[in-house]
Amino acid sequence: MSTNQCGNAQDAFYATGNIVPLPLIVRAEGIWMYDDVGRAYIDASSGPVVSNLGHGNARVIDAMATQARRLDFAYSRVSRHQSNIDLTHRISELAGPGYERVCLASGGSEAIEIAIKFLRQYVVAKHQLDKKRIITLSPSYHGGTIATLAITGDDTLDPFIDGFAMKSDRIPAPFQYRLPDGQTRQNYRLACAQALEDKILEIGAENILTFIVEPIGGLATGALVLSEDYVNRIRKICTQYGVYLIYDEVMCGTGRAGRFLASHAWPDARADVVVLAKGLGSGYTPLGAVMVPGTMADELAELTGFNFSHTYNANPISCATGIAVLEEYDRLNLIEAAAERGKSLKARLETLATKYPCMGDVRGAGLMMAVELVQNPDTKATFPASYPPTEHVRIFGLKHGLLLYSRRTAGGRYGDWFMVAPPLTITEDECDELVDRLDATLNDFSNAACTHLAEVIN
Description:
By secondary structure, the protein is of the alpha/beta class. The two termini are about 40 Å apart.
């Protein structure tokens, strides 16, 4: 099927209002993807911020093939294998003290569920049966299974979830771009932290299992970076009331933000449990990880053990892939590169924002950034529903050879943004090329938006 055709099984399954067919990608190398008619695209958002290592890495591919020839499958509940041992040991080393035990999963949603199940089984084993409520931010995103959608902070999902799954209790995300009247950035984020304590007191600490938060938000908040004073406060609150803190680093972890864990930026606010995925397999294989303290895992092992698993937990080929990915991180110094390249790319984006008023905010850390699109930079007004900006910027991006991951959160109530999160292997010259293509994209977007808004007014 060519790029200009649609209607296959995949297109029919995912009903969409897209007016431009998705390109049919046939090969990829580095930061580049190529469609069936020879067009080249920069993978500007690493898909859904997953392809940290870039495409076509020969060492990773060779490691996958070698493992497949030696041992293709072993079920983790009935046997052990060396790749599992080696990968979990390396993850624990990189994560540091407090994360001595690692459970592997086949993706982020599954890993989030494992983290919750681990904590739930832990408190049940200690006869704290009422601890079952979960607190998350609004907005937030924690996965695509029924359970993780239910704890995702997006009230547009309520008609789907209500009466069908146990929703999380929600508190406001500490946005720093749009603030309530009379609030400073610091006052507002500390008020958002106080909302956690207020929610705990409202529900009762004895009823709450965990508070789950992304250190750097994904598409739900457009790379919102939590501040040190905020995380220190929520850590103190969770400790005070016996609520377990989970950092969801599915997207921002594994070096994306310039540290192996984004939360390594806050040594005094370590979580009880951390979840990784996306960059750990870097798109070469579905892979996630849940990291917990050795003391907790060992105590649970003595009480009941952890009684849940999935078929592909610690799959040998996926484990070998994860080992090879982390070896490439070391060989290519990608975590350091993400920190340095991220600074220079962010500076380029901020310069571009002086040219395009629609770029209301540029935020993020390392090579995990987002651009917030606004109709008016002074009022920070979002675009009307008649002109969905994230869909239009995606389409103009295709025209100029950019694959962009974008979202209008809750119908634009929280904002509209797209992720700028290329593979960590991107070079300075490739950063220049990305910005040039984004310049052309935003030029077309701005002109089209002005035309549309003028027609609406008239």
